[in-house]
Amino acid sequence: MWVFAHRGASGHAPENTLKAIALAIEMQCDGIEIDIHEIDGELIVIHDTWLQKTTNGQGHIRSLSFAQIRALDAGQGEVIPTLREVLALVNGQCKVNIEVKSWATERRVLTEIDYAIAHLGFHNEQLILSSFNHHILRAAKKQRPQTLIGALTASVPINYCAFAQELDAYSVHCDIDFIPLEMVEDAHARGLKVFVYTANEISDIEDMLLLGIDAVFTNYPTRAMSKTAHQ
Ligand code: G3P
Ligand code: MG
């Protein structure tokens, strides 16, 4: 079971910062998950749309310019990084799951993926593009068919993972609170990997191992790795 550092090693450093990313690399995670938004044509790495949650700023991220956002403190003196900065830091040392939040356009993200493969030491299979917005995923797959797509869901659909197969996804990314065995079996029967967010407790990790999950997103990678083959 792969261990992905959720928002970087966010249990140990401010989430979605270069510090949290560097820590995840140091921990030798299989992958790192980050969240991105597009502001003024730039892709920034942050989860929330409201700045006060994780920075010393106030208001909605769309109410500030890219330059204003870059002047904020995202915790422990860290700036809000760009996608390019994160990919440059990781430099192909592990997988990266780029989760596209509401209004990052797929075209812009795909350009960064191509750049990372050409210049930042990645190969295509190390980069996964995920989103709760399946329209973005479908558009991305159409524009760049070799893109690995992770279809996010927080539900257990009637047809289980049919939606992900329809998207020609690589993986289905499920909420830990809604992951029955039937969902896992259905995904695997359709040739999809199953990733689960967010598994932070040891008992969660044990449950995921029993379910046959392929990857977990966790804020505490070393805790998860102590229960997997990494020890
Ligand atoms: O990508 C997995 C997980 O991060 C999805 O939920 O809200 O933590 O971005 P969220
Ligand atoms: Mg996320």
Strand and helix map with partners:
Blueprint: E1 2-6, H1 18-26, E2 31-39, E3 42-45, H2 66-70, H3 83-90, E4 95-100, H4 106-119, E5 127-131, H5 134-143, E6 148-153, H6 162-166, E7 171-175, H7 181-189, E8 193-197, H8 202-211, E9 215-218, H9 221-225
Parallel strand pairs: 1-2, 1-9, 2-4, 4-5, 5-6, 6-7, 7-8, 8-9
Antiparallel strand pairs: 2-3
Helix pairs in contact: 1-3
Bound molecules: SN-glycerol-3-phosphate and magnesium ion.
Named once each, the bound ligands are:
SN-glycerol-3-phosphate, magnesium ion
Reading the helices and strands in chain order gives EHEEHHEHEHEHEHEHEH
User: In percent terms, what proportion of residues is strand?
Assistant: 15-25%
CATH T-level topology? TIM Barrel
User: Count of helices?
Assistant: 9
What general form does the structure show?
Answer: globular
* Number of structurally distinct domains: 1
Gyration radius, rounded? 17 Å
Sum up the structure in keywords.
alpha/beta; globular; binds magnesium ion; TIM Barrel; eight-stranded parallel barrel; binds SN-glycerol-3-phosphate; 231 residues; 32% helix
